[in-house]
Design a protein that fits this description.
This protein is of the alpha/beta class and 475 residues long. Helices cover 32% and strands 26% of the residues. Belongs to the class-I pyridine nucleotide-disulfide oxidoreductase family.
């Protein structure tokens, strides 16, 4: 007889494993199914984020930043480096070790919370006995049953038509994290998060990097002023970013890759490179889920259709994360996961999409929460803006990293903070203060009147709040 559970979670990424743990904390019997395999073939829960996304990319970004500092910035601190060498294999090995630590940490959390883990591919078999039978395909195929099912199967990299990923010459995020040596020339199609982060890694290590972007504006979802500052910084570093291009075709050969494209002026161009990273978005991972077996509704793009509470068209079937509408962010998936587990328990789980932070882990980092200035203008909302540059911040000067600024937008009448946008050092950490403030519907004056430690980068946030009222103290 098949094992029976209160809740079955399909997928062990940030949304899946978080849903499983929270449901177990709430007293349910829980199973989590995940098929990801580690380097040795064993279970590797954590999804794209842990295995070929957020975690390994940050490990490589840190390694490449250390190398860049040693090569170009230590001298300003009076530190001389002779005979600087680069061991890419060791760098990748460290990255893999970081990934495995996270994989093992999730397996430990499953044991701690008594979550039954099944290593294999989960799919709907049929609806039965007030619940669902879920097939687990893998080394040991079996079927389990559950009353509630949470689908958290994530997403896959979108391939460029006519240029399938071979992870040797044409790379997805997976292949981009496994390049065995620094290519002399690297092409990237797409200037989004993945393209910029991977471009930054290999540029720092010595690659000649060219990015081709179809959109006419750089980082169109980012506040325009912040995006402009970032573009200036990246260009100064040596990243070549071409906007408004149309890809005509990609050819591979022994010498590498040739991209044929039309530039923003309509002229035919070619780009030859050793390797090509394609980062043009991601698609929901619903193939093989068995949606047809139970009548689970997908939309025209393959996403699982859900309502505002992550309920699907089927009773007691839920879906979270990249496989549903909304931003494809690990922390968004985690928030939805907790909310769904609590809703199953009869509680009132809640996710505020307006206060989900975004981060691009380049150097300088880019982070934001809330609305951009262009969005506020488009909706006709009256606002005030305050900015403060890191070049006027004492801690940034001591760090030797004064690129960028903090920008705050507040309602003209109520002074409620509507958006905070940062480009500069440690933006990924600084944005949390803005998220908390906006969650509590704080005003810019609230932040302006809170004492911030001196010297600290966070003072730039306070100064931006002061600047909303045109009373910045240090600029």
């Amino acid at each position: 007889m098949a094992q029976s559970f209160d809740v079955i979670v399909i997928g062990g990424g940030p949304g899946g494993y978080t849903a499983a743990i929270r449901a177990a904390q709430l007293g349910f019997s829980v199973a989590c199914i995940d098929e990801w395999k580690g380097r040795q073939g064993g279970p590797a829960p954590g999804g794209t984020c842990t295995n070929v996304g957020c975690i390994p990319s940050k490990a490589l970004l840190q390694s490449s930043e250390n190398f860049d500092h040693a090569a170009h910035h230590f001298a300003t601190h009076g530190i001389g480096v002779e005979g600087l060498t680069l061991d890419v294999a060791k760098m990748l090995s460290r990255k893999d070790a970081v990934v495995k630590q996270n994989n093992d940490g999730i397996l430990y959390l499953f044991r701690k919370n008594k979550v039954a883990f099944f290593h294999g591919r989960g799919s709907f078999a049929k609806a039965a006995d007030g619940g669902y039978e879920i097939a687990v395909g893998g080394a040991k195929s079996e079927t389990i049953s559950g009353k509630h099912v949470i689908v958290a199967t994530g997403s896959n990299a979108r391939a460029l038509p006519g240029a399938a990923f071979d992870e040797s010459l044409i790379l997805s995020n997976d292949g981009a994290l496994r390049i065995g040596g620094v290519p002399k020339t690297l092409g990237i199609i797409g200037s989004g998060v993945i393209g910029l982060e991977m471009g930054s890694v290999w540029r720092r290590l010595g690659a000649d990097v060219t990015i081709l972007e179809a959109l006419p504006d750089f980082l169109g979802a980012v506040d325009k002023q912040i995006a402009g500052e970032a573009l200036k910084a990246f260009t100064k570093q040596g990243l070549r970013i071409n906007l408004g291009v149309r890809i005509e075709g990609v050819d591979t050969g022994e010498a590498g890759v040739v991209i044929r494209y039309t530039d923003a002026k309509g002229a035919a161009q070619t780009l030859a490179c050793e390797k090509l990273i394609v980062s043009i978005g991601r698609v929901p991972n619903t193939d093989g889920l068995g949606a047809d077996a139970v009548g689970l509704k997908l939309d025209e793009r393959g996403f699982i259709a859900v309502d505002g509470e992550c309920k699907t068209n089927l009773p007691n079937v839920w879906a979270v994360g990249d496989v549903v509408r909304g931003p494809m962010l690990a922390h968004k998936a985690e928030e939805e996961a907790v909310a769904v587990a609590e809703r199953i328990a009869g509680q009132h789980g809640h996710v505020n999409f307006n206060t989900i932070p975004w981060v691009i882990y380049t150097s300088p980092e880019i982070a934001w929460v809330g609305q951009t200035e262009q969005q506020l203008k488009a909706e006709g909302r009256a606002y005030r803006a305050g900015t403060f540059p890191f070049m006027a911040n004492g801690r940034a000067r001591a760090l030797g990293d004064t690129t960028g600024m903090v920008k705050m937008l507040a309602d003209e009448k109520t002074d409620e903070i509507l958006g905070v946008h940062i480009v500069g050092p440690m933006a990924s950490e600084l944005i949390s203060e803005a998220v908390v403030a906006m969650e509590f519907r704080a005003s810019s004056e609230d932040l302006a009147r809170i004492c911030h430690a001196h010297p600290s980068l966070s003072e730039a946030t306070r100064e931006a709040a002061l600047a909303v009222d045109k009373r910045a103290l240090n600029f």
